[in-house]
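Repro case for the chain-ordering regression, as requested:
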Amino acid sequence: MDSIISVQNLTHTYTDGQNNSVKALDGINLSIAPGEFVAIIGTNGSGKSTLARHFNALLTPTEGICLVNGLDTSKEENMWQVRQTVGMVFQNPDNQIVAAIVEEDVAFGLENIGVPSEQIRPRVEAALAAVNMSAYAQQAPHRLSGGQKQRIAIAGVMALEPKCIVFDEPTAMLDPKGRKEIVSTVVKLNKEKHITIVYITHKMEEAILADRIVAMEKGKIVMMGTPAEVFSQVELMNKLGLEAPLAAEVAFHLNKAGHKLPANIITHKELCKALCPSM
Amino acid sequence: MLNDITLGQYYPGNSFLHKLDPRTKILATFFFMAAVFIAESALSYGILLAFVFIVAFMAKLPWKMLLKSIKPLWVIIILTLGIHIFTGQGEPLWQWKMFTVTREGIVLGVKMSLRLILLLLISSLLTFTTSPIVLTDGIESLLTPFKKIGVPAHELAMMMTIALRFIPTLLEETDRIMKAQSARGADFSSGNLIQRAKNMLPILIPLFISSFRRADELAMAMEARCYRGGKGRTRMHQLVYGSRDGVAACGMAVLILVLCILKWGGTLWAI
Ligand SMILES: Nc1ncnc2c1ncn2[C@@H]1O[C@H](COP(=O)(O)OP(=O)(O)O)[C@@H](O)[C@H]1O
Ligand SMILES: [Mg+2]
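-- result from build under test --
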């Protein structure tokens, strides 16, 4: 038991009001090591959010098991421990901030788990510092930019000192500047604080930063491996409705046209080097 | 950053009043309201008015703000005065057709409108010197002892907090929707009242739908951050009474005592 998150044969079926059932996840097996940075990609409706919500017991498996730090998420008594271990940041920054003052929002999780008052402030300050938002502690959230709001949401999770943070398309609603802020924050948390990251995204230039990429399709994992391994399979990616990074796409078409470029080209830099080795 | 809707009427400052514990201010406001109903003689009304003005002076509030706080109810105040003046019983001072003005009527009218003015002023003083966020903390703390008899103290406070957080967001959204609907040819500024109300539907429906979606997502985000109601919850800011609050309580006690003596003192003497 080395992995922080381990799911075995996980199936999740949603049942709606009219008793229609949707099998959103179908026999998922995945384990994530402590400190790892895993990106999950896949088209809309492929089950990424459903999978992510199992990691902190917002959903529980219909079949199979989901273990977080060895704790079974389907057991009621583990729920709070699980949610402290795995934090979650959602897509819409507006809809996850509870309080009308930044520092009170960051304190929200700590207040919920009953941390004594005198210990709350230092942890709030540390969390705000971790996302570079200390200067905004007294601000009203609605005055902040999207990227800043999203960093407040991250601070709110960080205050709980989780081992792992799940990000569900955190940049989907942000402008390019906000997107950069979030991506660099995520990378920093992973590299400096050794927090395990599960990062759901549609943007391949973000997924490329991960140690491992998991591609999903119709509730199943269809590809898994390092960014180089996954993105160099351009044909398969396109079949799944995903766009490989531009460099991988170019390399693929050049190779198809008879040029002999090295395998596993995914970044612009690698492509440049392969095309003009003298540069 | 301070001039916005979540601050309500709050007038930021650093005075004695601003620094008082919100619980002290809320309780003092209630006691003052009770005092207003004890007062009977002209002297006691004078004392109450003087008290309000001293407090307003201590809070360093602009006088204009105090006047403004009476404004929303001035019609009712004038009406109260008028009705009492013209319908009072007693010895007529002046008569014209069916209207009779009596001395008793004038006195009662002035008293009643003074009461209204005093109530307005004192509650405005509370909201001028306390931000809604702090007020929420105070209300939660004051209601907590009544949890046992079923008062949902934490839930009320959480509702107020979330309302304060989302009012600006929803206002922005309303603005956005209005612009979007105007761009599609909606007209919000012409037609009669019913027509205009009907024209608001294209704003309200999208607003409702998005609010429900927001509520759903917020609930999920709160759960993800270990929210499970008020049980076992702690607070970052703990309210603590200071010596200031003792001083304020003494001031209030003296005021009530003086008013009681003015009202019942005579009978005490008689015994
Ligand atoms: N609350 C729900 N009730 C019913 N079906 C749902 C619910 N949430 C998601 N689904 C369905 O489950 C599938 C996977 O959804 P989701 O996990 O949100 O995908 P993704 O995040 O990859 O876009 C979709 O077909 C979606 O329609
Ligand atoms: Mg999703």
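Ordering looks correct now. The two ends of chain A are 47 Å apart (CA to CA).
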